[in-house]
Design a protein that fits this description.
Helix content is about 0%, strand content about 45%. It has no helices and 19 strands. A hairpin with a 2-residue loop joins strand 5 and strand 6. The protein is elongated, with a radius of gyration of 32 Å.
Length: about 230
């Protein structure tokens, strides 16, 4: 031979990234606390919510995504999904290189009932909200203007509202959790009275004259009285 040596080198196979997962998932009006390693979610919406939309974001833009068997492009939002009263299952699939991950979301649309909501001991900054026990209820959740009042459900049939804003209207919704996934709701509206002006005393009428107004905040007491007859 001519003294030359030919060597053959075979590079190791490069692994193909397989990531049939979501890196984000939102359902309108439903807080999910999404984690890509979790594939089951649930949430409750008021009876007034008749539909939701779902936005799944896959970890790989080449992955195919479906919502309730309807294909979506990467990062696209689903069509409007109608909600019936009660449980509404939503299924999201992510497929990449022949591998599929399925996510399940159960949206419970609350059913309105009467719980006899009442508010008592109303002050400018607080009140107590009470309701009748619901047969079969495991516990209750309370929202104020759409925000949960508690960090976890309660078994009590009353809650105390404190540190509220004087002269403000609040919309209260109480959800009763019946069984594992059933939700019923009732609502109430509370308007806190405005705070009285600091340091101002009430008017006290005087017989035959104008009122006397005490202005304690100014440190001066003013008297206005009607004099009879002519002034000198």
């Amino acid at each position: 031979m001519n003294g030359q040596t030919t060597a053959t080198y075979t590079s190791p196979a490069v692994p193909v990234t397989v990531n049939p997962d979501l890196i984000a998932l939102t359902v309108s009006g439903v807080p999910l606390n999404f984690l890509s390693s979790h594939t089951f979610y649930g949430g409750v919406v008021p009876s007034s919510t008749s539909s939701v939309v779902v936005t799944p974001t896959p970890g790989d833009s080449q992955a195919s995504v479906t919502v309730n068997s309807v294909a979506l492009g990467s990062g696209q939002t689903s069509a409007t999904i109608p909600l019936s009263p009660g449980e509404n299952p939503i299924t999201i699939t992510v497929t990449l290189n022949g591998n599929t991950t399925t996510y399940h979301v159960l949206v419970a649309r609350a059913i309105p009932i009467s719980m006899g909501l009442t508010h008592t001991q109303v002050t400018p900054t607080s009140w107590t909200e009470s309701w009748n026990a619901v047969p079969g209820a495991v516990n209750y959740m309370v929202t104020v203007n759409g925000t949960p009042l508690q960090t976890k459900p309660t078994t009590q049939t009353s809650v105390d509202f404190t540190n509220m804003i004087p002269g403000t209207t609040y919309h209260i919704v109480v959800y009763a959790i019946v069984g594992d996934t059933g939700f019923v709701e009732d609502s109430d509206t509370v308007t806190t009275p405005a705070s009285p002006l600091t340091g101002q005393l009430p008017e006290v009428p005087l017989a035959g004259g104008l009122p006397v107004m005490g202005l304690a905040g100014a440190g001066v007491l003013w008297f206005t009285r009607r004099r009879k007859g002519k002034q000198a």
